[in-house]
Every structure is written in structure tokens, then in C-alpha cells.
């Protein structure tokens, strides 16, 4: 039961009033390149008007030629986005090999009979989970009793769709302690702005409850299984600023069947004895086996949390005596509870983390018992079951799972079926054992269960194996590339066995590098559509991620952010030097906060890559603080309100580093127009600036999805397949692969 926000966390930051003047003029059509397809050229994309706004930050003038694009409701801006997307779709459709590539991606993707996720196991082996059949677009919510018991459909989000309207998807779910009800967050068009609903599991029908503005809901049930606590964002007025959207959220108590507008405040701004800032995200967690509730204050995207405890029974009273357990300086990033015992994951004086234990009835973090000492392995997550605390670790890039039995207090290693990644998929304080999700670079994921009675890890078969889930002809290598300052950066390489190192292989290099998040080993059968062509897939584990713990994160954060893209460039150079590929056959990919990595790699070393895919990218980082998701991201990236903060943000902003007359590689930038994390004007402004500046004659495309949000979150199966086909055919076109060259 961690406290972290989801993967691909919220991305954006900053705040400062706009100063300066604007001048209006047309870009020269000659500054916008034609799209070259061998010796062929197609008319260019629509030209963006330039309206320069100049801001002064601590004596530094920053010119912004496309500030007006930040008004996404402006009809002219909308028309420009539509024209860009129409042009992009036309260009991509003309790539000859795209249709065959899409067909292969579909075949591989739909070879898996089902896709399982979000598993919850209750006493009596009642199991809740999301499932999507290979023939379906979106996951549905199911329940069954026992791993092989008959399943029951509880909710199909498609029921909310209207002809010609956006799709709907499930954002989160939480079953009541007795399994009679389940909370489901349903979101529209990838927006993640969920409506919280309640389903009766006996009848599979919804109750009358529907609560809006519950993106961060983190719902948690009370022992009566008839009431719950949840986070709700504030309602905005007509004059509210965009950046107000995620401010002042609070936790409320709701009783099934009551009017949510009358729900009492439980935790957040206005709660006596609780310190919460407007950009903080407060949540409350309850547990079926103890008498305390935990209030967690998430300080935006900052990993370190502030924790409070209060008697569970007081949540429904007029006064809640919240008592602080720990604060930011204790550097706690995760926790779980077993009875009166609370376990804390902390990196204080322990870059790779340690696990502490204290009592809820008398918490003492300073004097807490260290139950798992810091070591070589990085502690990633902790989760409590009835028998033990389960601890997820990564040691040298390989996932490990250990357990700390309450009866002995001695750490035990769990033997896993194969090396790769392991994630805690499900624990419950009344259930012995743990659900584990296992995968690797060459093996698709599946749900396993650890039974403490037998000490065995067995496949639950809830996720059946597909025909391409464990390909025999694919291998993964772990190497290290030397960065500019001598730092050795881990680099994972997935390839066909036996390929010649002759510099000829189409290669995709992916990177991220923010929030302390790592790209752990995983396998998706669709990757075979790339590998079987002799292609190489590589992942650069750059600074800013969490591969080596908090020190690795801090080495790519705010003022040290430049290490992130410099590490990435070093990994690209390694692939070229070792003759996996060459500059003419190397594409780089990343998204969201990884857009900083990709954007600055493009602007710093445009000669090194043939193509770049920049997905829903943070790109105008100096201005991102003004977006709805901006204030919560200040802890990770900084703020323009301080001189040092501005300096770091300016340095990591690709948009401000684009230079006229530079031969940039081919670039495809993507955005989902419903994106709640990186507003579409960021990708839009970068596309406009690159189109105007590049002198290479290579295409700069902006791909817009009007029924999508942030990087595929909440997207459909077909959307995923289409975007993969677009990205990979674009790259193969730019590599000069014959069957992907449009007719002359």
C-alpha cells in the first residue's frame, strides 16, 4: 500500500507573470521544410504564426514566439493543431510498409488471449481484477472466487459511451473489506478525470453514487464496508486559472447513498493539526486489521511524504485528532501497516533505502527499529500481508523479493522462477502470501502467487501465456556506457541472437530519467515486430531515475538535470561505437518527463540521430508551471520564482534551445488533446519551433489524438497499435529501409 502517484507521473511545473511586448509577423514559408521521402517531396505542414512575447527572468530575456498556443480554446490554435494532425496522418499513410507493419503488430498484440491487471485478493480468495480480451479495446472489471473459479463481469466502461463520442476506461478500483462493493473510477477519453462510482458485487449494478473530480481519489473503505474516504479536487470557478486545477484537493468521508456535496472533510486544508499546502495531495488509508487511519500528505510529485495517524473511529466524528508520524526530513517514501506496527521505507542516510519499524500507538521515527538495513540492493516497495512484510528490491538491474515474517523478524529471500523484474501485485493484511508480477526483457509478464506454507511461487494462470510470450531467438545484454564525466551508465540491449555487429541494425534507444523512476525489464510481444527485422531495442538507465537509489535520482534533478541527457547521449554513442548501429539508423524515444531527455538530446547533438520520437513531451519547461499539472511538479523540476530554479528550468527546456538553421533529425512529436499532465501546447510549440528552425529537409511531424490523454494512459488497444505502427514505420522510413520508402 504505497503512497506514490502512478507511473508516467504528473509532469509540469512553474509560475511567473508574463512580461514584455508582442510583435506579429508571418514565418517565411521557406523556413518550413518539405517532407522528403527519398527524392520525393510533399507539401509542408501548416505554418504557425509568430507572435513574440519576451519575458525577463532575473536579467535573462527569454523570447517565446508561440506563446499564443497556450490558449488551446482559441479557434486559430485549434485549426493549426488539426492541420498539423491531418498533414501528419497523410504523410504516415503514404509510407508503403506501414500497413504490413501494423498487421504484424496487431497479430502479435492480439496473440495473447487476455491481458490482466490491477489484481486485488481478499480473504476467501475472492479476486478482483481488470481484464481485456484480445478482441476487445478496453479492460473491464471482473470478480471471481478462487483462481480458477467462474468469473463475474462487474463493470464494462463502454456502457458510458455514446455513438461518435469518446471512449471510457477504468482509472482505479478498490473493493470493500467484505467484498460486497467495489469503487470504480471511470474516465473519459484518456483524461484521467474520473467519476467515482460504486458497484454492488452481488447484483453487478451501480449504486446511486457518482462523485466527480476524483482523479487522485485513492479511495479507502471503512470497516463497515458501507462508507469510504476519498480525495476530491476542488471545483473551479469561471475565473480560475489553469494552474488552480490540482490545488486544494481534500479528503472526504462518503456514505453509500448519501449526497457527496454534503460529505464531511476528513483530511487536508482546514483539518486541525494538519499542515497541508495548496499543491499537496492528501490521501487517507484505512486497514481492516487495526484501529488507526493513516493520513498521507503527498507534496506534489515529491517522493517524500508527511504521515499522520488518527483513531479510525474518529473519522466519522466531529473532531479528528491527527498525530504526526513523520515529515519530509525523515525521507519516508512508502509505508504499510500490520496491526499496531507501521513499516516505513526511507532513504535517510541510506541512498538505496532501508525499512524502519515503529508503533502507531506511540510512533518514534527517530528511534525506529531498522528491520532491513541499507545494502547493495535498492528497496523499491514494501507491502504487508498477514504473515509477513513483503519487500521488493532491485539488485544490479535484477528484481528480488524478500519477506520479513512477523514471527521471526528475520529476512528471507524468495526464490523466483526466473531473473527479470518482480513487482508486488497484491497483498492483503488478512491474507497470507503475496501476488507477484514477473517479467523480463525476453519474457512477457504473468501473475504468480507466493504461498508461505509451501514457500513456492506458482503461476496463477489468471494471465494465460500467449504463443509469442517467450521467444527463443531473443536475448538481452546488460552493459555500461561511460558518460561525459566518467560515470558508468547502465544500458540494456535487447536483440536477436547472433546478429553481426556491423553498424547496420535499425535501433531504438529509449530513456526517461525523472522522479527516481526506473525502466525495469519488461517484454511486450509487439516488440518482435521490430526485433525480427534485425532491429535492436535499447534502454538507457540515465541519472534522474532510481536504478541506483536516491543518489542516482538527485544526480539528474533540477540543477543537475543536464546529466540526464548527457548520459543518454553517451549511451547512443556506445551503440554506435560498438557497431550495433550507426547515426543513420539510430532513433531515440521518450515521453512525458522523458521528453526533456529526448528534446535536449536533439538540440545538443542533432547530428547523432536519424530520427526522434518525442511522446507527449515536457518541452517548454520554463512555462510548464502555468499548466494545471504544473504546481505539483515543482519539487522535481524547480520554479521560475527563484533564480536557481529558473536557471535549471531554462537549461532543461528543449523549446528554448532550438536554433535556426540547424540540421535537426527527423522528429515525430505526439500529444493527446485530453492530456491532463502535459498540456498539448507544449508538444505543439516544440513542433512549430523545430519546423521553422530545421535546415535538414527532414520531416518534423505533430501527431494529435483527439480521443486520448497522456501517453496511452486509458487508451484503447487499437490506439496503442496505431501509434506503434506510426512510430516504427516513421523510423524505418528515415533509416532508408527500402520497403518503407514512398514512391518517387
Can you offer a commentary on this structure?
The chain has 3 domains: 22-108 and 469-740, Alpha/Beta hydrolase fold, catalytic domain (Rossmann fold, 3-Layer(aba) Sandwich), CATH 3.40.50; 114-360, Methylamine Dehydrogenase, Chain H (7 Propeller); 361-466, no CATH class. It is built from 10 helices and 41 strands. Strands 34-35-37-36-38-39-40-41 form an 8-stranded mixed β-sheet, with helices on both faces.
A few lines on this structure:
15% of the residues lie in helices and 34% in strands. It is of the alpha+beta class and 744 residues long.
Strand order of the largest sheet: 34-35-37-36-38-39-40-41
- Radius of gyration computed on alpha carbons: 25 Å
Please give the domain count.
3
Largest sheet: 8 strands, mixed
The CATH homologous superfamily of the largest domain is named Alpha/Beta hydrolase fold, catalytic domain
CATH architecture of the largest domain: 3-Layer(aba) Sandwich
Structural class: alpha+beta
CATH topology heading of the largest domain:
Rossmann fold
Strand content: 25-35%
What's the mean pLDDT score? Answer: 93
Number of helical runs? 10
Overall geometry: globular
Q: Let me know the number of strands.
A: 41
CATH C-level of the largest domain: Alpha Beta
What percent of the residues sit in helical stretches (DSSP H or I)?
A: 10-25%
Q: What is the straight-line distance between the termini?
A: 58 Å
